[in-house]
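Lab manual, section 2.4: Encoding a predicted structure.

Procedure: take the sequence of the chain (534 residues), apply the prediction step described in section 2.3, and record the output as structure tokens. A sample record is shown.
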Amino acid sequence: MGVNETKEMILNNKTALGIEFGSTRIKAVLVDAENAPIASGSYDWENRLEDGIWTYHLEDIQAGLQGSYKALAEDVKEKYGVELTSVGALGVSAMMHGYMPFNKEGELLVPFRTWRNNITAQASEELMELFQYNIPQRWSIAHLYQAILNKEEHVKDIDFMCTLEAYVHWQLTGRRIQGIGDAAGMFPVDPETKDYNEEMVQKFDKLVEPYGFSWKLRDIMPEVKVAGEEAGILTEAGAKLLDPSGKLQAGIPMCPPEGDAGTGMVATNSVRQRTGNVSAGTSVFAMIVLEKELSRPYKEIDMVTTPAGDLVAMAHSNNCTSDLNAWVNVFKEFTEAMGMEVDMNKLFGTLYNKAMEGDADCGGLLSYCYFSGEHMTGFEEGRPLFVRSPESRFTLANFMRTNLYTCLGAMRVGLNLLLEKEQVKIDRLLGHGGLFKTKGVGQQILADAVNAPVSVMETAGEGGAWGIALLASYLINKEDGEELADYLDNKVFAGNEGSTLDPDPAGVEGFNVFMERYMKGLEIERSAVDSKIW
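Recorded output:
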């Protein structure tokens, strides 16, 4: 499509805008009437570890929201010569889970507790026993109940509890709404009713009744919406918050806010049963859309849903590329110390491709990329670790291959349960996120790790911001009765299958050998942590 045609779409509000708050970057993507990205903007940010809590400040959220939108508007002006004053629809996404409780005055009662915190073990265990359903530590309900168990003063004053994208949506629309995909990461949902599981809601209310709170659980939780349902409009106050310059107009329809898991499913066309995707960035998670419920709950497996409300099994690891990126930055410092200019894309590409020259089993090397706690393997705090024996083949290729393998190690622990114990079937697995930016490297390693073909689409780099833009587009462009899966197949991904890599037998065997070393090493590392050596 030419520049003039795209310009006309922008001027006639035939576009949709998605903004996603990732762990290290907030990205805005604008799509045209054919759902192709036509402009983008981003804003870098980073979480803080304060008083033992991983958090972002409200000021950080506002600055990032405005910064990413401003960069997008500037991109539109530069490419098409027009001011962005409105769009056809808008959506907001963010990292799933976490805990943001507010009082009646709209004040945040405690610092935002993100998904990265593993501080709710007691609550998680007790709720799992009560519900007979896995309640991961990062889920909002686990944070709430842990705060109750801790006798935290703020709990009695809660008027609204939400996740990050629901908070931003609330600020933009005045509506307390949550898309079902991340609502399922706050509290278990019923895939039949497309709402919170009422039996479990009643069990929780009865559990906390002796505390005498003035609220019931449904009083303080967001309303659940599925993809395609109306979720309010951008208010005057919301427009000024998003665009302080005053150019953006109010009245834009907004789709239900979704978590990054849901937008990842949309961005990879993985919302049908027997499809799955792996999102690999700061954290890594595999999501498989199920044909039926699992035979029993597993602590290692989250049960969430697609944005349309279909049941999904998620194997989620808190840690993926943070430690790997730290090692790459060491190489950056080295090259700068040698007086060489550093192109980070070239540096990443060179090191990633070098990994493919390494031994399939990494030459006996071992690494744990636990920058933060890792619930999948039972660690409350992060302790990145790289170890080798005198017999290990310590080369650059093996070093990089080890750092890439370990990015998928904890997730593989959970996937083994789905693929081996539950016999879950996968027809198609797609990868997206930073790990797949260097062509063919992360994709091949994932294929070897799961022993299944892995596809990566050309649009994979757009990630969840594109996914939430597609959900905004679906809101205003779907036909009567058109399901989300059909909309994606027919109007977004038609003819776009991407590239597919099959598992390499030597790589599969090598990854399995690495995982044997990984599992044995966990016992040693866990003993070291328990003994407070670390």
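Check your result against the sample. The first helix runs from residue 3 to 11.
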